[in-house]
């Protein structure tokens, strides 16, 4: 039986670096021999982190999304299906304790788009194996998530290259 109590960490805000912060947690966990599951929601494009983390011991990385930008109307049927597949995998990992660390990247969008209620999520979170550390990232998060998280870091945008017309660059932004 594992002794350490898993916490809930939250990296949120409109600034760049939320996923990068969660990957820092993943690197540290992997370096200490822990099993990690990284689930990227509402994504679906290749990125440098996918190429890198597949070589880390004990790390699994999956993306759930179509790779297209979701507009104000919210996700379409395929995005919804992708989310549900990812949520099923996350739920199993949390309840069965198959991983020491479960990262849910961009997951809070599910609450705002009506794909999952916060109550459903919090019930699973409360029922998870006690040693499972959970990291969530997202631009905006419900107040309830801010209240239950053990670590909350807001990442604020001060300046971004896109504002000057500099497009995302391979190896730095993706």
Provide keyphrases for this structure:
6-stranded parallel sheet; 6 helices; globular; 174 residues; 6 strands; alpha/beta
Strand line-up of the largest beta sheet: 3-2-4-5-1-6
Which H/E pattern describes the elements? EHEHEHEHHEHE
Number of helices: 6
- The percent range for strand residues is 15-25%
Structural class: alpha/beta
State Rg. Answer: 16 Å
The averaged pLDDT comes out at 93
Tell me the total number of β-strands: 6
Explain this structure.
The protein is of the alpha/beta class and 174 residues long. It contains 6 helices and 6 strands. It has helices at 18-31, 48-53, 77-96, 109-112, 118-127, 143-148, and strands spanning 8-12, 36-41, 59-64, 101-105, 133-138, 151-154. A 6-stranded parallel beta sheet has the order 3-2-4-5-1-6, sandwiched between helices. It is globular and about 50 Å long.
Short description:
The protein is an alpha/beta fold.
Give me the secondary-structure topology.
Elements: E1 8-12, H1 18-31, E2 36-41, H2 48-53, E3 59-64, H3 77-96, E4 101-105, H4 109-112, H5 118-127, E5 133-138, H6 143-148, E6 151-154
Parallel strand pairs: 1-5, 1-6, 2-3, 2-4, 4-5
